Amino acid sequence: MTDPVNAAQRALWNAQPGATWVTHQAVLDRMHQPMADLLLEAARPAPGEQVLDIGCGAGQTVLMAAAMVGPSGRVLGLDISAPLLDLARHRIAGAALPGAEVLLADAQTWPGDGTTVDLVISRMGVMFFEDPVAAFANIRRRMRPGGRLVFICWAEGNPWFDLPAAACAAHFGPPEAPEDPGAPGPLAFRDPERVCRLLTEAGFANAATRLLRPVLTPGLTLEETLALCERLGPIAGQMRAHGGSPADLEAILARLRPEFAAFEEHSEMRIPARMHLCSARA
């Protein structure tokens, strides 16, 4: 029987968006490297620790954490996207990191494998839960008492989302306001007070957030950045919603190009970002 929990997100990430992330994995890893570095710097996986990586995608943070815990430790990545996990397994097989593995599972309902973990991490992978309190409570049950939860998520005020959304609104007209601002999606955890409240309701202690200001897309060109915007984020969503044509896309990108070009330095994009680094104890 198909699990009805998070069904919409499961369908999404096993369809075109998941395939798009697979296709652009190398560029996306470069884009997200600053967030991965900040996450693991804060989480500090130690040799021998048992680590759970939620929403691990194509495996960037699984590989990084596995190198830190060493052969005596273990990093298990969970994700609901089969295409992304197929790529993650391929990357793990070539990395000579025996403690790294991934599993197709939903962290909101995963029953665990009989072990408890010292640390749970996530790089922008926890904002898609249908029921965040139930999901975090289930994650906490997989942790040892006092275990650490550390994740990074999008805050309010990111040009990466705001500028493409504005370009789409100028072309198609303003989108309808969402019925639930906290609905599953990239910006579901933009309110730090809500994040702390959800973690506390799920049974975590010492919930806290800290605003970070990393720079996105280091090393990417303007054209690479625009190519990503075509396929991910607000433009892709609005094109699907409006049945947009190639001419619509060309017009939107023409509006967006000078906006993003303002962040170009020496032929390299440096887009400022705002992220929440969130932490708690089991």
Automatic annotation (TrEMBL):
Stored Gene3D superfamilies: Vaccinia Virus protein VP39
Molecular functions per Gene Ontology: methyltransferase activity
Cross-referenced Pfam families: Methyltransf_25 (PF13649)
Domain Methyltransferase: 51-147
InterPro entries recorded: CFA/CMAS (IPR050723), Methyltransf_25 (IPR041698), SAM-dependent_MTases_sf (IPR029063)
Record key words, sorted: Lipid metabolism, Methyltransferase, S-adenosyl-L-methionine, Transferase
SUPFAM superfamilies referenced in this protein's UniProt entry, alphabetically: S-adenosyl-L-methionine-dependent methyltransferases (SSF53335)
Annotated GO biological process: lipid metabolic process; methylation
PANTHER family according to UniProt: CYCLOPROPANE-FATTY-ACYL-PHOSPHOLIPID SYNTHASE
Family, similarity comment: Belongs to the CFA/CMAS family.
Name of the protein this chain belongs to: Methyltransferase domain-containing protein
Lineage summary: Bacteria, Pseudomonadati, Pseudomonadota, Alphaproteobacteria, Rhodobacterales
